[in-house]
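**User:** I keep going back and forth on a fold encoding question. It is easy to fool oneself when nobody else works the same problem. Could you pick a protein and write out its sequence and tokenised fold? Could you put it straight underneath, so I can go through it closely?

**Assistant:**
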Amino acid sequence: MPDRLDLSESMEDYLEAIFHIVAEKQAARAKDIAVRLGVHSSSVTQALRSLAEKGLVNYAPYDVITLTTEGRKAAQDVVARHRALRDFFVDVLAVDETLANEDACKMEHALSPFILDRLIRYLEFVKTNPSGCVRWNDKTGYYCHTRGGRP
């Protein structure tokens, strides 16, 4: 995982939005970003200038926006944190996907690489548990589901 840049939550949100738009359309426009993030065009322009100064996006007014190599790495880091949190909430805690996405978006900015690694390892353990016995119950939390008295 790349070293984290000193980016604000807002700048990370812009990178993540650009990443997803570019994945869908091969390039992003300021209007696409404004719509996706629900912000004004002037805010997008300021953010793009800042990201361009940091060498994370290729930006010129009225032109398409793409991520630089460093920008793509930073965006992939944000996307990975979001995905890990969302998957943990959905697959491990049995949270509704809409709520999981909303809360993952809020939390992805504060997650340290160490905690992210541990979260991913735990998620992989739960998903690949050889006995398949780990289950979530809203009343009691985790339990080991057994069949015929055996895990």
Summary: Residues 1 and 77 are 7 Å apart (CA to CA). The chain has a mean pLDDT of 85. The radius of gyration is 19 Å. Helices lie at 9-25, 30-37, 41-53, 69-92, 97-107, 113-128.
